[in-house]
Amino acid sequence: MTKPKLDIEHLITVKFTNLIDDEDHFLQAAHLQNETITQLKLAHPILEYCLVEHFNFIACDFNKFEASNTIFKNCDFSNCQLDQASLYHVSFQNCKLVGTVLDHSYFNEVSFSGCLMDLAALNKCQIKAAEFIETHLEDASIDDTKIKKISFDHCQLNQLSLMFTKLKGIDVSSCQFKRLEVDYTQLRGLIVNSEQAALLGQLYLGLKLTD
Question: Which residues form a coiled coil (predicted)?
Answer without folding.
Answer: none
